[in-house]
Amino acid sequence: MNKLSDSLSKLGMVEPARIGFGQPRERKVVPLVLLAGRTARKRRPARLAETLDALVVEGDHKSAVNRASGWKGCWGASLKDASPEGLDALKEAGCDFILVESGGASPAILRDDGMSRGLVLPDELTDRTARAIEDMPFEFLVMRQTAEPGPLTVTGMIGMQETVSLFTKHIFLKVERLPGKSELEALKDLPVSALLLNADRADAAGLKALHAAIKEMKPRERREERRPLLPLPTSSGMALSNTEYDDDDWGDD
């Protein structure tokens, strides 16, 4: 399991205490919402390591490897396409995940090689497209905000919920501005597993405050297992009926 998969599987969990004698160590807490930052710079500001749970480097595989050099945490490459050789180079360099930016990429980009896969969702989704994406080997999906950049509104939340409800996969929300505490709570309950922001333009103080606010968030209320809200097809193409019948409704043959 790579670093990203491990973090996503443990969202909101506390590392178990070590059994035995010895110097007690601080127990690691996995945040409820991860912070992922995109960067296209050759040199990363030192502050990123303190506030980001994952780094997303842009460019081809060669530039991605160069930009991630020295990064000790979880990182991945945002690619429009990749050759098998390029994917090999990324994995060898310690890449944890591939974010697929374009539907025009070669199917080779989806190969099973131990790195997680994510997909940037199109702005318009049909039920058939959503069902196909749900069945494909993506661990997480990147969703853009449905409203114009600015404070979240109920209408905006409804629009995002429409997309979230189509999938059981982890949802990363691409944000143009850093959300406030009340917005964080709303996004947590969608649920959103990670915020994807532009680390090259983000304010250092704002990032630090956001990181602290996420650490203070309380766990989500336990919910039943989520299932995508898609119509179930039958052989006739009609959705299955939920109508219940009593035994008396059926006649004897």
Report on the structure:
By secondary structure, the protein is of the alpha/beta class. 27% of the residues lie in helices and 16% in strands. Strands 1-2-3-4-5-6-7-8 form an eight-stranded parallel beta barrel. Helix 3 (61-68) packs parallel to helix 4. The longest helix is centred in the last third of the chain and has 13 residues, at 204-216.
Q: Which strand order spans the largest sheet, edge to edge or round the barrel?
A: 1-2-3-4-5-6-7-8
Helix content: 25-40%
Cα distance, first to last residue? 57 Å
Strand/helix succession: HEHEHEHEEHEHEHEH
Produce the secondary structure layout.
Blueprint: H1 3-9, E1 34-39, H2 48-51, E2 54-58, H3 61-68, E3 74-79, H4 84-92, E4 97-100, E5 116-120, H5 127-134, E6 140-144, H6 154-164, E7 170-174, H7 181-188, E8 194-198, H8 204-216
Parallel strand pairs: 1-2, 1-8, 2-3, 3-4, 4-5, 5-6, 6-7, 7-8
Helix pairs in contact: 3-4
What's this, in brief?
The protein is an alpha/beta fold and 253 residues long. It has 8 helices and 8 strands; from the N terminus they run H-E-H-E-H-E-H-E-E-H-E-H-E-H-E-H.
Main attributes of the structure:
253 residues, eight-stranded parallel beta barrel, 8 helices, 16% strand, alpha/beta
